[in-house]
Every structure is written in C-alpha cells, then in structure tokens.
Amino acid sequence: MSAYEDLRAAADAVWAPIARPQRPLFVVSLNTSSIAGGATHTFDALRKLGEGAGFDVMLTGDTGIAWAEPVVQVQKPDGQRILYGHVTGDRADAFAQAALAGVAADFAVGVVAGPPVAGVPMLADLPWMKIQVRWMMEHCGVIDPENIDHYIALDGYKTFEEARAMERDQLIEVIKGSTLRGHSGSFFSTGTKWGFLKDAKAEPKYLVCNADEGDPGAWVNRVVMESDPHRLLEGMLIGAYATGAAYGWIYIRDEYPLAIERVRTAIDQARARGILGEDALGSGVRFDAEVVRGAGSYVCGDETGLIASVNDGRGMPKIKPPFPAQSGVLDRPTNVNNVETYADVTTLLKLGAATYSSVGSEANRGTKMFTVSGDVARGGCLEVPFGTKVRDLLAAAGGIAHGRALKAMQQGGPLSGMLPAEVALDLPLEPEPFRPLGAGMGGGGIVFVDDRACVVDLNLMFAHFLEDESCARCTTCRIGNQRMVEIFARTSRGEGEANDPDRLQSLAASFQNSNCFHGQLSPTIMNNTMQHFRAEYGAHVLEHRCPAKVCAPLVRYRVIDQGRAVDDAAKICPVEAFEKHGGKWQIDDVRCIRCNACKDVAPDDIVIEDRYVDAIPLRMIESAEVARAGGVRA
Amino acid sequence: MTVDNEATLEIQHLLRDFRPQDGDLLGALHAVQHRYGYIPRIAFRVVARQLRLSEAKVYGAATFYSEFRLTPSPATLVGWCSGPACRLKGSEGVRRMLESRLGITFGENTGDNKLGLHFAQCNGTCEYAPQVWVNGEVVGPLTAASTSDLVQKLKDEA
C-alpha cells in the first residue's frame, strides 16, 4: 500500500462511526461566531448530558449559518440528520430531551438528510442554502476541523496525490486554464502567479498564505481556517509541488485566535502523518509550514506589507518591483495567495476543470465565498457561483431586517466602495462590473446598509479607519487621510465648508500618487458617496442638518412625554443631563453626550430632532459677526 | 556592557527558540506579551540581542501594531468593536456610554488599573453587533442602556 492508502485506511476507520453513528451524535459548531453566541457552554452542557443520556458529542467548524448560532446538527443511527439553531447552553437540556425523543421543533432549522419532518423545511430548500454551491465549504459544519482523519476520509490529500502525478508545468497550465484568480480582491490569475515562482531562479522559494483578513465585515477566510484548515494546507502543498517552494508562512491576523489554534493543530497533525515535512506522502516533495501571528495592522493584508511584517519589521508595503516572486520573505522568491485562493486550488483540482466550470459567469467560473452583515435579516457566510446578483444574495439572507429599505451596499472593506441600492442590487458578484462604477468587489465582505444610516457618518468612520491604518510611508496617504477625516468630521458637525467637495476631489487625485492600494484606494467610498448621496452630504453643509439624525453634533434629545419611563431614563443618563423644571424632565443639551441610553429606556417619551431647526451653529454666527465687523475670520 | 538581571534572564529563556533571520520578530514579541500581558521596556534589548537586530528596529516593529501593548494591561480589558455592522447598530452610543461611565478613552486604564478600554477591529461576529469584548469574550448585542449595566457589573466584579 502507498503511504496515502495507509493513511486513508486508518482515517476511514475513524470516520465510519461519524458517518453511521450507532447512537445519536450531536455535532456542535464551535467557531468564533458561535462561541460569541455561547456555543462553548452548549458544547460543555451537551457533553455532560450525553454521558448519562447515551449520545455522543462532536465539534465541527462553521456552517456559515451565523444567524442561528449556536448551531447543532443531530445525526441519528437511522440516518436522520436535522440542523438546529439557537441552542444556547441554558436550553441544552430541554433541547437534548426533545431531539432524542424525536424532533426538537422549537430549534429546528432544517432537515439535512432522512425523511421529511412535518413543519420543518428541508435544509436544502431554505433560500439561504438554495442559492449556494458549497464546494470550498463542503466540509464546513461536517467534519471536526481538529481531526485530520475526518479530512482524509473525505478524500483529503488525495487531490495532492493526483496533482503530483502531473508534470509541474502541466499542473500550472491546468490552473491557468481555469479562471481561478486571487480571491482576496486582486483577482490576478493564480496559475500565472505560480508560474512566476516556478520560473524564479533563486532558492529556496517560499509560499505565503495571506490570512490577514482585515476588511471589517469580512470573515470568509476565518470560516475556511476554523472549519476545514487542511483544505488550505493541501492547496499550499499542491502549490509547493507546482512551484518548488520549500516552506510556507501562514500569516493570520491577531483577531482570529481560534483560526490560529486550528491551523497550528492542522500543521502538527499533517506533519505527524508525514504529509508535511521532508517527503510528503513519499512523493519527494519537501514542504513544511508555520503560522505567523499578526498583531493588528490592516496594511499587512497587502502582500508586500505582509512580507515586510514577516521579515522582522514594520508591515509597511513596499514599492514593486521587485515583485515577491523575485524577492519576498527573507529576500527569497515568494508567492502570496490568500486562504480562499489556496482552498479553491484544492477545490478546482478535486472537482476537475469541467465540473468547476459548470457554474459561474462567462469570465469567472466557479464559486466565491461571501459574508453578509449589517442591517440584513440573516448574517453569515455563503458560497455562491460567481456572477450571482446582489439582489439574490440579499434575498437569500432574508432581505433587510425589520422591513427597512436597503440604502447602500458597502462591499469588500474600506477600499472597495459603497454603492446605492439602485446600483447595487442588479450587480453580478464578480470583479469586472464594479470597476466602471469606480468601485471594487473586494475579498468577500458585504455590509448591507439600511435607510437609517448616514453617509457622512459612515464616511467619517471609514476615513478614521484609513487614517489609523495608513503605514504613513507616503505623504499622500498619511496626510490625505488626515484631511479626509477633518473634512468629514466638520461636515458631521454642520461646519462643512462650501469648497470641501473641491478639496475632496483634489485629495482623490493626490491619493493616486501613493505607493500601495491603501493610499490609492482610500478615496473610493468618498468618491462613490459624493457621487450618489450628494444631497444628503449637502444637507449637512448647507442646512446644518443630518437627515438620518445620526451625526451627534447635529441632533438633540428632547423629552416630549413625561411618562414613568423618563424617571428611569434620567437615572441611566451617565452625565446627569436630566433636570426637572416645574415638575417636568428636561435634557440639558450642553451636557448631553447623545449616547442614546435614555431613548433605549424611554423610546416613546424622548425624540431625537434636528438641533438647528431654529438656530445655526455657533461658529456660523461667530463668522457672520466677524464679517459684519469687517474682520477676516482666522 | 549589559548586566543581566532576573527579568532579562527570564525573557531570554522565553525566547530561546527564536532565531535571527527567520521571520521570528512578531513571534518573539507575542511570546513576551503573552507572558507579561504587555511588552516591558527591558524586553526590547533582549529581543534585539536574540534576533541580532537593533533595539530601535524591535521598538519600531512593536509600535507599528495596535495589539502590542507597551504598558501593563488592566485586569479587565474592554475592546470596543469599531466595525461597520456595529456602527450601523449603535456602537457610537455604546462608546460614549463606556467612556463617560469609566472616565477613560481608548488606550487608557482606570486609575486603579482594573479596567481599560481598547479600540478593536471587526472579527466577523457581526450577528452580535454592537458588541464589546471583555477580555476577549464577545458581549452583545448591546444598547447604550445595557452597556451602562455592563459597566456597573464590571466595576462590581473588579
């Protein structure tokens, strides 16, 4: 038997009781999202209950169904499998009893396998699932990501076996021949990139996995690492064979401690099985890898920033050339792909080019993972064919929550833009259609924004982010983002100046002279919103009014009804802004910090209203007085 | 000449497996922070010696990243998520409540060093927005009002 066949036989023996359990098996999703919802307590509680009640408990990664976490799948010996949601630790007992007796209807999300159950939909029929083609996510919520045997039993590392049967050039041609391109937002041909590294002369060569997923609202790479880390490792191993790379660095952001832990476990297990190390599965391929833990820096998501970070230093992006394929980690030829890209290589080769190309758009075959969040009814991670319409993705996620209307889509992090509903909804999810709109699709994060949001407020938030995360090498980016913060900060105070739009345009032009994408793309959201939401911006500047009543300096809180809840509102106010005049509560506007706690407590008795309905900002009065006095305002 | 004291020796021991020219600087700094909760001044020299770098280079790297601390961490660190989903759901109100009830802002600790505020980046647990992380554990969704209760609880427990 070959080394692989030996591994496979051992793994099959481990997997068999999971695939055909002799007694009920409770599979608990333990991932960052579910743990935030209390899944650790669920897991512990079910473990304890299982000992007495005769069922087993296993952990799995992330089903993507963040909207129902903590999620538990119950697999019965008769083949019935039902996915349950909202199984918190305090309800675990009631849940387990009901699920063991039959179906825990209160918790049921969908039937995964087995006969239909009255009142419970088939999981595959849920809009959330129906839209998906789960190829990269095939093991997500199925296997224990901390057990390599589960992965091997489901044909894991078999793709590497098949890939190494090909010549290296042939393998790279297969990848080039597909439309597989970098999933991080760059969409550069992965096969071409691998070809650069293969042809590089210097030795040793290195692979880097970019897992510094810093776009706020994006967590697709986290889902892969926490649910199916070996799919990433197998992609890197295939890459090592194709390019001749000897070592890999997997650079994971500090905010993902569980992903760090699981990828490290996966590396250790792969090494123990002879998959990583001197001679991968007897193939002669020598490749090993380690995790580098990031420490909180957005620009390390730029490949040259990431390399600089690994190379003993500050993660400041560098000027290309030299390109990483010439000089990267430790000044050696290096290839950088992100987590999803390596996982997609495994997926492409596992499925075969024909199947892989059977879904997607003309220019982009295959699938892409997205995470949806914000004002959406159901947030989580989905894998859909390239070219899926935004409208359909949003519908699968249950639309906008609370019956509100979609105002805008903020996709791909702070560098990819924000588009209004009327433009966004019909966009196919692939990179090309975004470009003529002055935007990008980005790496998979999509934040849906409803009609209660203020674009000036969001611009201010993103400008702060961009300023904070600028590496400060280029003046255009360092100072440009400071200027952008200043302009949106004063706009949010109603103190925007008439020529600020010109200044923003001028800034947008100078940003183009920055070295890396961080600077060059910093004005994207500003450009998009100044184009599409000019009236809302104008209301802040010309009328000193925030139409959405979000910008704190432009609103005030007022008591309109002296209900009993106002007593509680007065009590909770952290700045004692509530005063009683003539037996009636009033809010001192000067002291009020607009934290909204009073309105949380007394929603019907307190209103948020325009601050300057009958007055204009003090600064405006001052400047008018100075002008009247014939002076020049500083 | 450097005189090695007990703390230096302990850090040296902590860093014994890290090597120069091997991409180990972040790992070394993490190891120190993991042990002490922050990176003490003295560690820069030890890290520099171990990795054969200048102290300035080590300091430069440590101060580049928002998750390395150069001052002792408080007993309870409250990370406020600055992400967009939280923003849309009222994180600014949560921030204002935290700052006013604790009397501190980001990067500061209360006078007794028991509570501190940290500006955190989105980790993708947006179903629990707006949220804070209490010593790494997600607490949410919050309102400004429930944040007031949370602060009281943290103060009582501190």
Describe what this molecule looks like in 3D.
The complex is a heterodimer of chains A (634) and B (158). With 634 residues, chain A is α/β, with parallel strands linked by helices. Chain A has five domains: 8-130, 3-Layer(aba) Sandwich (Glutaredoxin); 156-355, NADH-ubiquinone oxidoreductase 51kDa subunit (Rossmann fold), CATH 3.40.50.11540; 367-450, Ubiquitin-like (UB roll); 455-542, de novo design (two linked rop proteins) (Up-down Bundle); 552-628, Alpha-Beta Plaits. Helices cover 39% and strands 15% of the residues of chain A. In chain A, the strands form five sheets. Chain A has a five-stranded mixed sheet, with helices on one face. Chain A has a five-stranded mixed sheet with strand order 11-10-14-12-13. Chain B has 158 residues and is of the alpha+beta class. Chain B folds into two domains: 3-64; 76-157, Glutaredoxin. Chain B has a four-stranded mixed sheet, covered by helices on one side. In chain B, α1 packs across α3 (41-51). The longest helix of chain B has 14 residues, at 144-157. The radius of gyration of chain B is 18 Å and the shape is elongated. Chains A and B meet through α2, β10, β14, α18 and α25 of A and α2, α4, α5, α6 and α7 of B.
Q: What is the average of the pLDDT values of chain A?
A: 95
* End-to-end C-alpha gap of chain B: 43 Å
User: Can you count the helices of chain A?
Assistant: 26
* Tally of discrete structural domains of chain A: 5
Largest sheet of chain A: 5 strands, mixed
Any guess at the CATH architecture of the largest domain in chain A?
3-Layer(aba) Sandwich
Strand arrangement, largest sheet of chain A?
2-1-3-4-5
* Biggest sheet architecture of chain B: 4 strands, mixed
| Global geometry of chain A | globular
